[in-house]
Amino acid sequence: MPHFSKISLALCLVFILGGLSYLPRWKKKNAHATISYDVSGYYIYLPAIFIYKDIKKMAFKDKIHEKYKNSSHSYETSSLPNGNVVTQYSIGQSVSFLPFFLIADFLATPLGYERDGYSLPYQAGVHWGSVLIAFLGLYYLRKNLLEYFSDKVTAATILLIVLATNYFNYVTMDAAMSHNYLFTLTSLLIWNTIQFYKNPNLKRSCFIGLIIGLAALTRPTEIVLAFIPLFWGLTLSIPKIKERYSFLKEQRVKIIAAILITSAIGSIQLMYWKYVGDSWLIYSYGENGFDWFHPHVKNGTISFRKGWLVYTPIMFFSLIGLARMILKKQSLGLYIFFHFMIVFYLTFAWSCWWYGGSLGQRALVQSYAILAFPFAYFLQWSSKKKIRWIPVTLLSLFFIYYNVWLHHQAHRGNMLDAENMSPKYFKKIFLKWEKNKDDLKYLDHDEEFIGERKNINRIYFNDFEKDTTIQNSGIENINGNNGYHIPIKTDLNGFFSVPFTNNNAKWLRVGGTFKNIHKEWNVWNMTQIILRFKNKDQVVKFKLIRINRILDDFETRTIFMDSEIPHEKLTDIEIVFWSGLAQYPILVDDLYMEVFQ
Length: 597
Known about the structure:
Layout: H1 4-22, H2 37-43, H3 45-50, H4 61-68, E1 77-79, E2 85-87, H5 92-108, H6 120-146, H7 151-164, H8 178-198, H9 202-218, H10 227-231, H11 238-250, H12 252-277, H13 297-302, H14 308-311, H15 315-327, H16 331-349, H17 368-382, H18 386-411, H19 423-429, E3 457-462, E4 484-486, E5 490-499, E6 507-516, E7 528-535, E8 538-546, E9 556-564, E10 572-579, E11 586-596
Antiparallel strand pairs: 1-2, 3-11, 4-11, 5-10, 6-9, 6-11, 7-8, 7-10
Helix pairs in contact: 1-6, 1-7, 5-6, 5-9, 6-7, 6-8, 7-17, 8-9, 9-12, 15-16, 15-17
């Protein structure tokens, strides 16, 4: 009889290797490399300690950043009053990277690479080591699920979590992020908890303490994992609670040992802070913090910017399964609900609830090791009747397809803007494989006229040929001998307006021909064209698009935006430009406004 869950693990191996060949980040340069952005922040402890012997000043980091350009700016550290620097990230991920770093460090020079902590052996060591950690996590996820579910249900659960969720991203392209490691630690903790209640011994309790300590050292909020060995599978009845209390009391020596090990591991961070900052506690996250009384639940769950269930909709299966487990008074379901509510709250109480440029809600990925149980419960329930398992199967296939599309557009299709996604833009690109650059304006602008324009009336046109006040920026003119050169680092400028009173027109189109030299990638630096409907000095309505989203290097392109004309009283319509942080000038010509039905 075949072991379907073993086959599913083998298939996961194939798919993960396929993902690695699709985007081998350890071979990439600059900010696309494995050790870049957040990973470089997790990792910086290791070269500081073992290569440069400079954990206090980290003077090497600017030279490394200049050489490898592993982020848009060097943000891993911040200065302390005593002149030292402190890293933003906890040290736990560096502890997990340590064996892979040491192997790479041993091999770098013999293989002919620089022993600088960032050359190819280090990139490959960290990335492939992280993939090994992923397989370890999936292996123990299988063992955990088989304690409660059939082999077939376990197989289907593992395959769908890998293929239909953003977990795939964090075990392939972004395997070195902390979520992959935390998923594995959670799976290991659940397995050891299950075994501890079967056969309590000191070795297993020490391992439980080690896992919780390393998880909390990696991400402090993961201390909630300590609830797993205390409450896993506990039935909410007085006799069962008393029974659990008696058991834990009997095992108090082993529990104290686990607590001591967790505390010892956690003290590594405290000792680092004391060593570099003369204080046992240092808050290193700058302006970010917790909005305890205003968690961003709606945005974090269903927004198009980064909503968990928008980008990983198959996890609805897990939520339905969890609801059924609770209705059926499954003790495991009650604990998972309790645990996930705490994780959910902590995740979305964080002020930076979108967690940077991630694919979906990366901060919940490690929780899939727990949510796999109600996920499997849902699959088990749906498989009992054809009327349920056929639509569930079809939905699962669609979610896999959708997940493949998301991953491609996040990495090579370049249609997803991870931090700036808007509902309008998401709907424009949904399940499309070919990129239309004009759609990028809908990251800023939410109005679009669809259909045939009628009764078009051009109310403004400017080719700038007679404007002698314009200062040339060095960009060659588009048409004729002149154009408006939008200056750099100037707030509002231009102010091209036309008198206007409401008439039968319903829509307005503003556009022109634009040309640049270099593309600006930083969204906050991008030059904006702003449309303003005004009643004297009052702005009744305004809309904008960031021109640099659409223009590539040395590109000339016609750009326009449509907007419904407001019903309020109007005296004029105005086009202005904002370039307060712009690094590169832009030339505009043949600027126009048209009203139409």
